[in-house]
């Protein structure tokens, strides 16, 4: 029995599998590089968010600031709305303030937003969606 054709067929399949593995390794290397870039970008955005949030307390008072309740979150909440391009939910504001997204934090933020609505600084467009008063 001549096994030479069988060995040649195995060699062809082995070469194809090796080529596929090499291509996949190249793709993995490229994806790892892209992943590192994306993770670095995310880290920079997180640092920027923390810096902006920390500096929000130092932003010069707005006209309505005199009417704000005495709590460090209120100027920061207004800073979040100044940067917003549309209405925000309490969860969005909580996240922008770097608060843990726990029910107690979200509800506390919602209460602050409702208070700002009563003061005429924010408006509740529809249930749970808040925006700056125009």
Give an overview in words.
The protein has 134 residues and is mostly helical. Helix content is 65%, strand content 7%. Strand 1 and strand 2 form a beta hairpin. Helix 3 packs across helix 4. The chain is rod-shaped and about 95 Å long. The N and C termini lie far apart (90 Å).
- Class based on secondary structure composition and strand pairing: mainly alpha
Q: Please list the strands of the largest sheet in the order they lie side by side.
A: 1-2
Low-confidence stretches: none
Q: Considering DSSP H and I runs of 4 or more, what fraction of the residues is helical? A: 55-70%
Strand content: 5-15%
**SSE series:** HHHHEE
End-to-end Cα distance, whole Å, is 90 Å
* Radius of gyration from CA coordinates: 28 Å
What coarse outline follows from CA principal-axis ratios? rod-shaped
Mean pLDDT: 89
Number of helices: 4
Largest sheet: 2 strands, antiparallel
Based on DSSP secondary structure assignment, what is the total number of beta strands? 2
Task: Write the topology of this structure.
Layout: H1 4-56, H2 73-83, H3 90-96, H4 103-118, E1 122-126, E2 129-132
Antiparallel strand pairs: 1-2
Keywords:
single chain; 134 residues; mainly alpha; two-stranded antiparallel ribbon; 4 helices; 65% helix; rod-shaped
């Amino acid at each position: 029995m001549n096994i030479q054709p069988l060995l040649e067929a195995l060699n062809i399949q082995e070469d194809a599998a090796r080529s596929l593995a090499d291509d996949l390794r190249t793709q993995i290397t490229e994806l790892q590089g892209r992943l590192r870039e994306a993770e670095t970008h995310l880290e920079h955005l997180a640092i920027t968010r923390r810096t902006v949030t920390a500096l929000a307390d130092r932003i010069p008072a707005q006209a309505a600031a005199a009417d704000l309740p005495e709590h460090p979150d209120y100027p920061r909440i207004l800073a979040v709305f100044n940067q917003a391009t549309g209405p925000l939910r309490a969860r969005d504001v909580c996240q922008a303030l770097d608060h843990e997204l726990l029910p107690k934090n979200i509800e506390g933020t919602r209460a602050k937003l409702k208070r700002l609505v009563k003061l005429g600084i924010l408006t509740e467009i529809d249930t749970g969606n808040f925006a700056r008063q125009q």
